Amino acid sequence: MPVEIIRKNDNSAYDPNSEALGVSNYVTNNELPATSQFGDTNPDPENFRLQARVPNATTNSVQMKLEVKRDGAVVSTTNYTLDKKDGDFVRGPFLRLVTDTNDDAESGDQTILVKLGDKIKVSYDIAAGSKVEQEIQVGRPASESNNEPDKPWKHDIREVKVRIVAVKDAAGNACITDAKVNELVNNANERLAQSGIRLKRTQDTVEVIEPPSKPADDVGPAYTYDQNYRDGHISGHLTSPSEDEIAFSLSKDGDSNSIDIFFVKHIVPAVAIAYYSSQNKTGNPALSNFIVISSDAVRPFTVAHEIMHILLNQGHRNLEPSTALFYSPTSQFKTTAGKKRIGPYPQSKTNNVGDDDTTTMRANAETLP
């Protein structure tokens, strides 16, 4: 009597050996009905529901336990009533995986808080001493490789290497704390999970460095960053880099497939600047694929938003949905209706902006543009 985790569009069963559950891209209170009939389907390809075979004809419902397991330990348990019956089977409501507590609080037990790599275990007692159970992962293993746009249940977990650096302030202290950086990285992982992406830090703690400098050259004298980072972009392109940009590019780690994220005290006049490859017109590849963020002005999703610039290899776009993570400016809070979604989802389709973002970001995650 198998337990089946059901796919959204045709209610067919997942195959845990080759498929996985995924974190939803949808705004959490969109397309998540409180109740659904046995044959109902759902437009969110990452919504799922539970199905069980009843032990006898007089049984009209089944209580099923769902556990979230992380590193072998159970981190949450929820019980569901499956009471939409057809023949020998019953199904429950549609469920959705989310990654932050704001989204998890939105739709009661229909939202399940997870991280990439977690396992979902479902089980119920068919009779005294007889249990039926099944387990499936959140995201396919990173060792696999599948980026089919219309099959998110096949997507492996992609990892973006990041080196995180804090530049010393005028007093000689790191301009940002490890705790704050950890919070920002966690926020980024929560957001990027909807594309099956997580960050892989090159160091466990923040690397603290002296203000970057550049030697004297044919263009000008030696220079050291003076706590006011200056942007040399003109009309979205970098042709004549500022002294700060040259100095910071010399402080990168030299790995062409890792993103260097520099925290500084202040940027003139921005919150953050992402040096994505397509805007670099200098001929110097070192002036690509790094990020500079003001520790004074950073917001919850700044790191995730700037990483999107690198992985999408583009600047801001017209008609960006107001719920999109790529919308500028980023949200100050982590509310459900905030700017935190990555296409594809209904708003990206309606606006015809960002519907391919997950596919593009995944393609560029491990080999940067």
Shape: elongated
Question: How many discrete domains?
Answer: 2
Query: How many strands?
Result: 20
For the sheet with most strands, the description reads: 6 strands, mixed
Integer-rounded radius of gyration: 23 Å
- Tell me which CATH architecture of the largest domain applies here: 3-Layer(aba) Sandwich
Annotation field: number of helices: 6
Order of helices and strands: EEEEEEEHEEEEHEEEEEHEEEEHHH
Report the end-to-end length measured between terminal Cα atoms. Answer: 49 Å
* Overall pLDDT level: 95
**The CATH class of the largest domain:** Alpha Beta
User: CATH topology of the largest domain, which one?
Assistant: Collagenase (Catalytic Domain)
Q: Which residues form runs of ≥5 with pLDDT under 50?
A: none
> What would you call the structural class?
alpha/beta
The amount of helix comes to 10-25%
Strand percent estimate: 25-35%
What's this, in brief?
The chain is of the alpha/beta class and about 375 residues long. It has 6 helices and 20 strands. Helix 2 (about 180-190) crosses helix 4 (about 300-310).
Description:
This protein is α/β, with parallel strands linked by helices and 369 residues long. The protein folds into two domains: 4-142, Immunoglobulin-like (Sandwich), CATH 2.60.40; 158-364, 3-Layer(aba) Sandwich (Collagenase (Catalytic Domain)), CATH 3.40.390. 14% of the residues lie in helices and 27% in strands. It is built from six helices and 20 strands. The protein has helices at 101-104, 178-192, 243-249, 302-312, 346-351, 357-364, and strands at 4-6, 49-53, 62-70, 73-82, 84-86, 89-91, 96-98, 111-113, 119-127, 130-137, 158-167, 197-201, 207-209, 213-214, 223-224, 229-230, 258-264, 267-268, 272-275, 290-294. The strands form six sheets. Strands 11, 12, 13, 17, 19 and 20 form a six-stranded mixed sheet that branches. It has a four-stranded antiparallel sheet with strand order 1-2-6-5, with no helix packed on it. A hairpin with a 2-residue loop joins β3 and β4 (73-82). α2 packs across α4. The protein is elongated. The model has no long low-confidence stretch (mean pLDDT 95).
